[in-house]
Amino acid sequence: MMGRFQFPRREPLQMKAFSFALALLVVPTLALAQNASRFDSGAKVFRLDGGASSYAFGVNGRGELQQLYWGGRLDANDKFPQARPKPGWASFDTSYNNTPQEYAGWGAGLFVEPALKVTFADGNRDLVLHYESHTSTANGFDVVLKDIARPIFVTLHYAMDAESGILGRSATIENRGANSVTVEQAAAAAWALPAGQYTLNYLTGRWAGEWTLNQEEVRHGARVIESRRGSTGHQSNPWFAIQEGPSNENHGSVWFGALAWSGSWRITVEKDQLDAVRVTGGYNPFDFGYVLKAGEKLETPVFYGGYSREGLGGASRILHAYEIAHILPRTAATANQTAPKPRPVIYNSWEATEFRVNEAGQMALAEKAAALGIDRFVMDDGWFGQRKDDHAGLGDWYVNKEKFPNGLKPLIDKVHTLGMDFGLWVEPEMVNPDSDLFRAHPDWVLHFPGRPETEQRNQLVLNLARTDVRDYILGFLDKLVSENDIAFLKWDYNRNWSEPGWDQLPAAEQKKVYVSFTDNLYWILSELRKKHPKLEIESCSGGGGRVDLGILRYTDEVWPSDNTDPFDRLTQQDGFTYAYTPQVMMAWVTDSPHDLEHQIRVTSIPYRMLSSMQGSLGIGADIAKWTPEDAATAKRLIAAYHQVQPTIVQGALYRLISPRDGSEFSATQTVRADKGQSVVFAFIHSTQEGRGFPTLKLQGLDPAAEYSLSWIEGKAQPGTPTVASGAWWMNHGIDFSDSFRGDFQAMAFRLDKK
Ligand code: GLA
């Protein structure tokens, strides 16, 4: 469709600057940091090299685009012969099925997962895509395919990142015919691996229980991870990593990918009839149907893929650095910088006051927060409309006069006087039936006329696909941010879709809602940021229900879970970091026990602080009730965190000991090679049967350099050196077996290069 919102593409110059930062974080030798994309016209082979990986595909003798290679970087002089289709297997699996197609049309008897399936106006549903032409782009190629008879064109976009070797792939599907075509299934890309034994890693969860890492053998048939919910979902996340052989954190080949889409999505991992593996991902085909009228185009989301030979740890380090350099948005202050700035340490009112916010109470909390060294004060739900609980008010984005008789200004001024900036909670896409907005516009919600409208948390979903709704949302947000000095919005989204009707459109076109809703969400975020270049935004969806590389282009951070229990968070954060950088991983210290969000156990302030300090730190406790000792401990640790935060959130992450599978212990380490700094966190669940904490062997240090050890929390066992070489810390390691014991214990230290 013409004029559809396009993903912003960074300027080549900026790419260079970001790439340099990546080199510092991930790739030790700048020699590798060269992007090369070449087309061998004789063999008809396209090759893309970046970081430590290479990707190649070619035009085979039938004219199909066939994958040739994805893996470790090849020599520049290595040459691929022309692609040869795989033979058929008896009369049941044709060569078309067995050949790894770059982007297979459903036609010619295709039984494996198609990338594209369409129905033409005359009922024909056969689509066979052949190479037509290509152009070279700054970082790769645009390769045009066309159906063998009909004017359906598909342009495959390939962009290789020089430093990380991450390849961004997407497709533009264009109807150049005179009649409409319905797209019933459209992938962003299909990735192929040769026949072999592999382990699939993927993330699943539920509300307050997100980020469970699943590891299982890739078996015959298909493993589908997906969301049919209209948004990304807590239940599955659009990320995968496939390891050759069993999973290993530090060693071995891993191919990984992440889909940049916040609407319904699907990734299918398929082991086919000849043991080869294909990963196809894009729009979820369930209930999908996008009508392309004559001349219209559909541009799919981007599916990013990468390769590491350093196990799952290597894979996530590459992805984190890429996210920091190329995905996360920049504000006015960081527009030309290689990385976004580390997140301010926030205070959030939700667990302290829930909906009972008012001027005096928030001012009192703000004073307490400032005394701890907090950078940003965020007022959560409850400040607007007739919002006393979750039954009313969503949609009415005016300040509640009973709670804030003079508007938000006195509170915001107070927060500024205390040396913090101000953030506010909003849930723009939702409406309570008990609201002025719904009474005025009952037709603005997703619904099927004459059918019940299913409420969840007493709310309905506004149909952002409608331009009037889209403009209303941008309008009120723009007004709110223009009239108040707001540095940050916590953008929430507290339910999934039901009855996804869009009755403004003819029946055949209504399923476009799956694409247009999310496109308009991105458009609103993008326009709002353009109008307010200093504004920062968090993506929250009842915790981690909308975390993906699509929303992360427009949001500076995410709320990983409503579960703020510090022990549960260790496992959640471990899972989260397989796909997403600690830079975006907000983590609050809350009260324990606390009856709101599953905070059932009692843990110390240092334990809670250190659990949260592994990501972007916040405090969400009722700090008015803290003892002076609690406040002093938190203040000391916030100050210590501020000193090392860039290393923690933007360094290379090593998951030294995983808390998964009931482990008694866990530990993480981050390294900023360019700053010569490393930070280590270690946790004990419960020491059992006298077992001491395992010797910690660090990673990623310069073996020849000297590092001094200093404590953030905890103490050394007698005999531990305060200065030693990187080789010592990595090979000999650090023994804590006698000094670090007990239940729910935590310690943290830093190493600084001398
Ligand atoms: C969601 C969020 C919470 C809080 C509440 C407010 O559950 O995840 O952090 O903002 O909404 O209603």
Structure description:
With 754 residues, the protein is α+β, with helices and mostly antiparallel strands. Among the domains are: 19-327, Beta-galactosidase, Chain A, domain 5 (Distorted Sandwich); 657-753, Immunoglobulin-like (Sandwich), CATH 2.60.40.1180. Helices cover 21% and strands 30% of the residues. Strands 6, 7, 8, 9, 11, 12, 14, 15, 19 and 20 form a ten-stranded antiparallel β-sheet that branches. Helix 1 runs antiparallel to helix 3 (311-327), helix 10 (566-579) runs parallel beside helix 11 and helix 11 (605-613) runs parallel beside helix 12. The longest helix has 23 residues, at 628-650. The chain is globular, with a radius of gyration of 26 Å. The termini are far apart. 55% of the residues are buried. Bound molecules: alpha-D-galactopyranose (GLA).
